[in-house]
Amino acid sequence: MNHEATVELLSRFLDGEVTPGERQRVEEWLAESHEVREIYEGLGRVRGSLGRLAETAPPAHLGELVRRRVALEGEATGLWGRVEGRLRSWTAGPGLLTPFAVVLALAAMLYVLANGLARFERAREPVYVTAPDTRIVAGRQLSRHGGRWVEAGLDPARLDEAARIVVAAADAAEWARQRPELAPLVELGTVVVELDGEVVVLVFESAVASGRPANEP
Amino acid sequence: MTALAAEAVRHDRELVARHAYGDPEAFDEVYARFSGLVFQIARRMSGDDALAEDLSQEIFLRIFRHLRGYQGRSSLKTWVYRVAINCCRSRLARRSRRERAFVAVEEGRLERVPSAAEGPQGRLRRREAAETVGRALNRLPLAFREAVVLRDVCGLSYEEIATVAGVRLGTVRSRIARGRDRLRLELERGSS
């Protein structure tokens, strides 16, 4: 053990700040080593002398000096110091400010929580995606694509080879009478449907000429 | 915390609340309770009566300014010790830089320390020895002086010193031991 560690242990032994094991080790050292005993006695003399240092009472005028300086300090802090003092005294002791602050904090937390939940609830509402450009007419589901109605499920590749049938305005009523199952299509303008296994583009000039919005038959 | 300690802390808090509320008698009570302790630390840390007076005023001014901030986590006494030690540290660190050269000249003039068993006037000599140790104390580095003063002059426990000085228990043990050892060596050198 080096000198510093030895001195530290002896110093703690002097103060009774050792474990039983350390105590035993120090007692053995003291019994065996003259050098350790000298160090220990020297440390003891130092401690004893420090403890015997005369406890001098503060000079009588010190209190007056302190009071004067404190009074000057008090004047310097002025009104704000007094206000601050009041505020601090409320927070230091069991005053009103602390419970008030706790209540305020709880209220704020509740508000944030409730507001957050409301937003969350709003977010959970189902989104109703309306599809105004899709409708079922004459038993066929039709979607609006670039100014014409196209039957759902048609292969886009077949649109290019589709036959085009133009029904003049004057013939529309007759056409509708002959194909009553397709009569409602007359109102739609241009419609792409599958008829008898063929993709057909039907152009009803009566509806196209009237300028009626395609989805407002 | 024992019931007695809890009662003491409650009383301390009340005292602080009164001070914060502007009751001048509260600070008078603080002064009455701690002036001896503060002056003793200032005197032993500075080794100079006039400087100790000055330091004591500074310490009480700090106490007056910051007493409202006392939270009651430790006893008011421990808190006062901490303020006093911090004040001494900052003031004496400035002084020690200025006076290092002077102290170096004084190094060679160590008084002879009589043994306790020396002659019939042992009591008087022990007192002289104490004063000699007191003077040697002034030559210790601040950190060691602080630990030794708090332990051997003020009688604080190792744990209390750790709280007051804001250091770990191991550091406290080491500083006390090294401080005492340096004093021992200085005194032995002086007596040889």
CATH architecture field of the largest domain in chain B: Orthogonal Bundle
Please give the alpha-carbon distance between the first and last residues of chain A: 105 Å
Domains of chain B (count): 2
Q: Rounded to an integer, what's the Rg of chain B over CA atoms?
A: 19 Å
- Kindly report the name of the CATH homologous superfamily of the largest domain in chain B: RNA polymerase sigma factor, region 2, helix turn helix motif
CATH class of the largest domain in chain B: Mainly Alpha
Number of domains of chain A: 4
Q: Which stretches of chain B are poorly predicted, pLDDT < 50 over at least 5 residues?
A: 100-116
The beta-strand count of chain A equals 6
Please write the string of helix (H) and strand (E) elements of chain A: HHHHHEEEHEHEEH
Structural class of chain B: mainly alpha
The percent of residues in helical segments of chain B reads over 70%
Oligomer: heterodimer
Average per-residue pLDDT of chain B, rounded, comes to: 82
Biggest sheet record of chain A: 6 strands, mixed
Poorly predicted tracts of residues of chain A = 213-217
Strand arrangement across the biggest beta sheet of chain A:
1-2-3-5-6-4
Work out the strand percent of chain B: under 5%
The averaged pLDDT of chain A comes out at: 79
Features of the shown structure:
heterodimer, A: 217 residues, alpha/beta, 4 domains, six-stranded mixed sheet, 8 helices, 6 strands, disordered C terminus, B: 192 residues, mainly alpha, Rna Polymerase Sigma Factor, Chain: A, Arc Repressor Mutant, subunit A, 2 domains, 78% helix, 0% strand, elongated
